[in-house]
Amino acid sequence: MKYKLNVNNQSYEVEIENINARPVVVTVDGQRFEVMPEAGNQAQVKPEADVKVATKSVAQSPTAAVNLPGSGNSLSAPLPGTIVELFVKDGDTVAAGQVVLVIEAMKMKNSIRSTRGGTIEKVLVSQGQSVAHKQALVEFAG
Predict the structure, then answer these.
(1) Phi/psi at 62 (nearest 5 deg)?
(2) How many CB atoms lie within 10 A of CB 17?
(3) Alpha carbon distance 16, 86 (integer Å)
């Protein structure tokens, strides 16, 4: 996914390779960074080993923090919408990056992928249900 971002009146071209991978690999104006999302609104950002760090980087700006749903023992809705498909049930084993369900928002279907591997302890939503942003969708065991 490619984005053009303005941070502190400076424009950056940002590409995110796989939002569900850990660490998330992000390219900012041609420089690659590994971003490790943490619980809350903070992120640790470090450049890949073979890349020199520029003095100005997006990591220096508090507005560049990554906030991803799915930290902890639950997977949360990244946007409000309606559940149109469920691919898991209680007790299923999933791999990181596996599609768990589909949310429709503004007539677009969005595949929601597991942020980690493990066993689904409880599916908290049902097909046709409306969900809010950051609402828990499934709980993982352990």
Answers:
(1) -65, -20
(2) 11
(3) 26
Query: For tokens 């984005």, what's the residue?
Result: 3
Beta-bridge mates of residue 28? 14, 31
Nearest to 107, CA basis, from 131, 85, 84: 84
pLDDT tens per residue, the chain (142 residues)?
787 877 777 887 888 877 777 777 778 777 777 777 665 444 445 554 444 334 334 443 333 333 344 446 899 998 899 999 999 999 999 998 899 999 998 888 988 998 888 999 999 999 999 999 889 999 999 7
Closest CA to 111 of 123, 122, 100: 100
Determine whether 1 is exposed, middle or buried from the number of CB atoms within 10 Å of its CB (0-12, 13-18, 19+): exposed
**Residue whose structure tokens are 């429709």:** 104
Q: For residue 25, how far is the Cα from the chain centroid?
A: 12
| Beta strand pairing call for 93-94 and 10-16 | unpaired
In 3-state terms, what secondary structure has residue 28? strand
